[in-house]
Design brief:
This protein is mainly β. It is built from no helices and five strands. The protein has one domain. Helices cover 0% and strands 37% of the residues.
Length: 70
């Protein structure tokens, strides 16, 4: 993802190794609909100390709201 905007909603997963949230897609529903389907997502953690690559089912996709910057 190019740029995360504070206050916006995103769909993502939690890294299975370092537990860091990985934001994948902007969520235009603002957290109101679920991401479902039969597919799997191959995701690499962007954390420079981790870079763990894993498959995530759609049941593992969560809703996140990017933190506000003060």
């Amino acid at each position: 993802m190019k740029e995360v905007k504070p206050g916006e909603w995103y769909l993502g997963v939690i890294c299975k190794k370092c537990k860091m949230p990985i934001l994948l897609f902007h969520d235009p529903s603002k957290g109101k609909i679920d991401f479902k389907g039969p597919g799997k997502l191959k995701v690499t953690c962007p954390n420079q100390k981790c870079h763990h690559e894993n498959l995530y089912g759609t049941d593992e996709v969560q809703k996140f709201r990017a933190e506000q910057v003060h």
